[in-house]
Write a structure and sequence with these properties.
Layout lengths: L11 H8 L12 E2 L11 H9 L14 H15 L10 E4 L2 H12 L7 E6 L3 H9 L3 E8 L5 E2 L6 H6 E7 L11 H14 L2 E5 L15 H7 L8 E6 H5 L7 E5 L1 H14 L5 H11 L3 H22 L12 E5 L7 H12 L1 E2 L1 E2 L16 E5 L4 H18 L11
Length: 409
C-alpha cells in the first residue's frame, strides 16, 4: 500500500459521525443539517431537460478534453463573468468531473515527489488540499486565516525558505469556510512570489457566484488580466456548476489558465480516465450559457442570510461573510468548545453543525478553527430559519445554569 495513505486525516464528516456516536437526538424535533455544503435548492428544469435529452450520448466514449462546444461555453462564461479576453478553448480550458476531483488530481500531476516539496494552503481549508499534498509525496504548509483581516490569510508571514520549497499554492476565494476573498493587492503579492520562486497557483473558485454585496468577488484570471499577466503564467483556476447551478450530483466543472500547465494536466487525465459523460457535457453547456437561474439562486441565498444572520448574531459572534453560503461563527462566549457545542446542539435540538477544528490544523501555535462552527445555509428559507431559531433557543438556555438537559450526553 502507498505509505502516504497513513498520513491522511479522517474526513470531517467521519469525525462528526464519531462525535455523535451514542447520542440520541431529541425526538421532539425533526433533523436539520447545516453540516455539509450540499446545495438544496432545486436543480433548474432546463438543465434536467438538457441532460435527459442527451442520453443518446451514453453510446459513445467521451474524450478527456471534452467537446469543442463545452470548452467554448466555459470560455464564453469566463469572458462574460470576469471581463477578460476570451481564453483559447483548445488550449486553456479543460472540463473536469467536478472541482474536487480535479483539485486532488492536480497535485499528483504537478508535484515532483523527489524534491521535499511543500504545498501551501489556507488554514482552515478544504481537506482535499491536504490529502492531495500527502499523496503526491509533498508536505502541506498551513497559512492561518486572521480574523482581524476578515479571515484572509496573511501570506506575508510565510518565511522565504517555505516559498523556496513550495511547488503548489492552493487557495480558495471565496473561502471555505470563512467566505473571505482575495484582493487585487493580495494577488499582486502572490503573483510576485510565484514569479520569484516558481510555484504554481491553484485557485479554487467554486463559490464565486454566491455573494452578498453588489460587487462579485474578484477572480484569479481577472486579477491576472488587470495586472498585465495575459499568459496567466503559473496560474490555474478551478470552478464548478455544483453551487452555481445546484447540480452537485452532475459532477461538472473546469480547469482554466496557463496553457502549458493545462496541456500537461490533460496528459495526466488522459491516463487517469477523467472524461466527462456526454450527457453531462450537454447539460453543462446549457448551464454555463444561462445566467438567469444563477441570479435567482444568489437572491435566495441573500434572502436567507439577511434573515438568519441577525438572529444568530444575537447569541454568538458571527457576521455576514463576503461570499459563499457558510457562516463561520465563534461560539466561545457560550462556554462550550466547538465539539461540545455541536454535540449538545445535535442532542437537544437535532441540528447538525460542523466543529471548526475539523476544518483546520494546529499550526504556528494556534488552531484557527478552535471554538468556531461552520453552518451551511443550503436548505430552503423555512428550514434555515427553523434551524436558526433552535440555535438561538439552545444558546439562550446555555446562559441559564445549571445546564441540566437530559438529552445531552
Amino acid at each position: 500500500m502507498n505509505p502516504n495513505l497513513d498520513q491522511l486525516h479522517p474526513y470531517p464528516f467521519e469525525k462528526l459521525r464519531q462525535l455523535f456516536a451514542g447520542v440520541t437526538p431529541n425526538a421532539e424535533y425533526s433533523a436539520i443539517s447545516l453540516g455539509i455544503g450540499e446545495p438544496k435548492h432545486a436543480t433548474p428544469a432546463f438543465i434536467q431537460k438538457a441532460l435527459v435529452n442527451a442520453m443518446s450520448g451514453l453510446a459513445n466514449y467521451p474524450s478527456t478534453i471534452g467537446t469543442d462546444a463545452l470548452r467554448a461555453a466555459i470560455a464564453g462564461w469566463l469572458q462574460r463573468r470576469y471581463g477578460i479576453p476570451a481564453l483559447d478553448p483548445a488550449t486553456q480550458v479543460l472540463p473536469v468531473n467536478g472541482s474536487r476531483e480535479a483539485l486532488f488530481a492536480f497535485a499528483q500531476a504537478v508535484i515532483d515527489p523527489a524534491s521535499r516539496a511543500l504545498v501551501v494552503c489556507p488554514n482552515p481549508f478544504y481537506q482535499i488540499y491536504e490529502g492531495a499534498a500527502f499523496l503526491a509525496g509533498a508536505e502541506p504548509y498551513y497559512v492561518n486565516s486572521v480574523p482581524a483581516l476578515n479571515f484572509a490569510c496573511d501570506y506575508a508571514t510565510v518565511p522565504g525558505e517555505v516559498w523556496e520549497r513550495a511547488q503548489l499554492l492552493y487557495l480558495c476565494s471565496p473561502g471555505n469556510p470563512t467566505g473571505a476573498t482575495v484582493s487585487l493587492d493580495d494577488w499582486k503579492e502572490l503573483f510576485a512570489r510565484s514569479d520569484r520562486y516558481g510555484f504554481i497557483i491553484a485557485a479554487d473558485e467554486c463559490y464565486s457566484e454566491i455573494y452578498h454585496g453588489s460587487q462579485p468577488p474578484l477572480g484569479a484570471l481577472e486579477a491576472a488580466h488587470q495586472l498585465g499577466r495575459a499568459d496567466y503564467r503559473n496560474l490555474v483556476v478551478f470552478s464548478s456548476l455544483s453551487k452555481r447551478s445546484n447540480v452537485p450530483g452532475m459532477r461538472s466543472g473546469f480547469v482554466a489558465g496557463d496553457a502549458a500547465i493545462v496541456k500537461k494536466f490533460l496528459l495526466y487525465r488522459t491516463y487517469s480516465g477523467g472524461a466527462m459523460s456526454p450527457p453531462v457535457q450537454t447539460a453543462s453547456i446549457a448551464a454555463w450559457n444561462d445566467e438567469t437561474h444563477v441570479v435567482e439562486n444568489r437572491n435566495k441565498y441573500r434572502e436567507k442570510f439577511a434573515l438568519i444572520t441577525p438572529l444568530l448574531k444575537s447569541v454568538m459572534d458571527v457576521d455576514l461573510p463576503d461570499a459563499g453560503f457558510y457562516l463561520w461563527a465563534d461560539v466561545a462566549r457560550t462556554g462550550l468548545t466547538d465539539e461540545e457545542f455541536a454535540r449538545r446542539l445535535y442532542a437537544d435540538y437535532h441540528v447538525t453543525v460542523l466543529p471548526g477544528t475539523y476544518l483546520a490544523r494546529d499550526a504556528h501555535g494556534s488552531n484557527p478553527g478552535r471554538n468556531r462552527i461552520r453552518m451551511a445555509l443550503v436548505a430552503e428559507i423555512d428550514e434555515g430559519l427553523e434551524a436558526a431559531q433552535r440555535i438561538v433557543q439552545f444558546c439562550t438556555e446555555l446562559k441559564q445554569p445549571p445546564y441540566l438537559n437530559p438529552n445531552s450526553k
